[in-house]
Amino acid sequence: MAAATFSATLVAPSILNSHSETNTASSSFHKPKISVFAKPKSICFRSSGPRICRVFNANKFVRTEVNSRAAGVIRANAAQVAEEARPSAQKEMEVVDVDLGDRSYPIYIGSSLLDRPDLLQSHVKGRRVLVVTNTTVGPLYLDRVVAALTHGGSNISVESVILPDGEKYKEMGTLMKVFDKAIETRMDRRCTFIALGGGVIGDMCGFAAASFLRGVNFIQIPTTLMSQVDSSVGGKTGINHPLGKNLIGAFFQPQCVLVDTDTLSTLPDRELASGIAEVIKYGLIRDAAFFEWQEKNMQALLTRDPSALAYAIKRSCENKAEVVSLDEKESGLRATLNLGHTFGHAIENGIGYGGWLHGEAVAAGTVMAADMSYRLGWIDDTLPKRIVKLLKQAKLPIAPPEEMTVDKFKSIMAVDKKVADGLLRLILLKGPLGNCVFTGDYDRKTLDDTLRAFCHS
Ligand SMILES: NC(=O)c1ccc[n+]([C@@H]2O[C@H](COP(=O)([O-])OP(=O)(O)OC[C@H]3O[C@@H](n4cnc5c(N)ncnc54)[C@H](O)[C@@H]3O)[C@@H](O)[C@H]2O)c1
Ligand SMILES: [Zn+2]
């Protein structure tokens, strides 16, 4: 497909919204449409305690409901969940649905969700669970996850494997430890793997679940902001190869994602800011109102105001869920989630993985993408300024590190996954705030100008 045509089909969000009109039940921006001629059908998957039900209408996924025997049927993504489906001590919970037909799943977002045995137990298939975590997160939260799984004589038996912490362990040897444990403890096809940790654990555990016995049930409990707003949603799983990041993997969707916002209280500041870079991305590529909200609420996010964080996570998940439900396997639209990432990956690779956090590299990459968009005449000059201001406020970098030269950028970007037929396609901003394109149809000289503007040599 010609790049120009391609970019034209990927203008977001106005065209996107019209494409998705029949398919937007996953997003709480739109009310689920219930047609009058077909009776909704529910598929529920637990017979004891509160049940989680998926409602279909004319075979189309509509929404997730939490059915509580005590409280009656509650629509999970409606505000009254907070009022009726939980014991009075529990706080509000939001549910965002990822609409992928029979592989649809809910993202639960709220405080104290690790203390909600019903949620976790409802998504466990069989009686055997393997929790995959690491040496940092395990000591903080593993006991609570085990307690939730076994609460009330659930009959669920739980094993765990604690991996070393760090991106450098997202590789085959460490993955083998997960399989070793699963085989030693005789996990069978009806077992459930649970990822408890940040994106590294989520990607590894997800890939292990995708490949163990050709695929077992999988639950994500993301504990970094990065994983809560991005990596736990959408089913991309995988590990690194010595020759490149995320080169070995599979698309494999979880049964549910459980985001307990309280886990962010132990997250280091720098990791929090790294996640904020992805939150900013959603506003820029498709959600102007969300970007404007961030401009007003960045301080609340940085001071970890619980309701600000919960809102940012929910809105990010809604955006990601909608994109993923329209383009699960990244044939086009999903690539727009990579705003700033081509420049960012070059930075991560150029200075050596681990030098900068992913979100830090994405932040600098976003400024570079905005600069190039402005040079192309696709956005006005106020937008790059607003982006820089917001990133600075979040204490994120707004330029690449000194060691990144023009040549280094060029040589690394030449092998980017988004190169097709020798043409580097980029996600660039175009039009008013909240619009972007994924395109290879731009003036090469403009890319050079941007690189020269940000690099010393
Ligand atoms: N699958 C996807 O779609 C996708 C998307 C974006 C990123 N990723 C991947 O995610 C990874 C980055 O994820 P990340 O930023 O979460 O990094 P991470 O998993 O390395 O976590 C960052 C650090 O925070 C620690 N940590 C996690 N939760 C904590 C908590 N609650 N309290 C204290 N410390 C905690 C971790 O142990 C680690 O040291 C990369 O490997 C990236 O490739 C995947
Ligand atoms: Zn990213």
Automatic annotation (TrEMBL):
- Where is the 3-dehydroquinate synthase C-terminal domain positioned along the sequence? 275-419
Gene Ontology MF terms:
3-dehydroquinate synthase activity; metal ion binding
The principal location of this protein is plastid
Q: Which Pfam families match?
A: DHQ_synthase, DHQS_C
Pathway info: Metabolic intermediate biosynthesis; chorismate biosynthesis; chorismate from D-erythrose 4-phosphate and phosphoenolpyruvate: step 2/7
Q: Which biological process annotations from GO are given for this protein?
A: amino acid biosynthetic process; aromatic amino acid family biosynthetic process; chorismate biosynthetic process
Cofactor(s) the record lists:
NAD(+)
Could you tell me where this protein is found in the cell? Plastid, Chloroplast
Q: Report domain 3-dehydroquinate synthase N-terminal positions.
A: 161-273
> Might you give the EC number(s) for this enzyme?
4.2.3.4
Known catalysed reaction(s)?
7-phospho-2-dehydro-3-deoxy-D-arabino-heptonate = 3-dehydroquinate + phosphate
Top enzyme class, one word, equals lyase
Q: Which UniProt keywords apply?
A: Amino-acid biosynthesis, Aromatic amino acid biosynthesis, Lyase, Metal-binding, NAD
A cellular-component GO term for this protein: chloroplast
State the CDD domains in the record: DHQS (cd08195)
Q: Which family does it belong to?
A: Belongs to the sugar phosphate cyclases superfamily. Dehydroquinate synthase family.
Q: In UniProt terms, what function does this protein have?
A: Catalyzes the second step in the shikimate pathway.
| Full protein name | 3-dehydroquinate synthase, chloroplastic
Per the UniProt record, the source organism is Picea sitchensis (Sitka spruce)
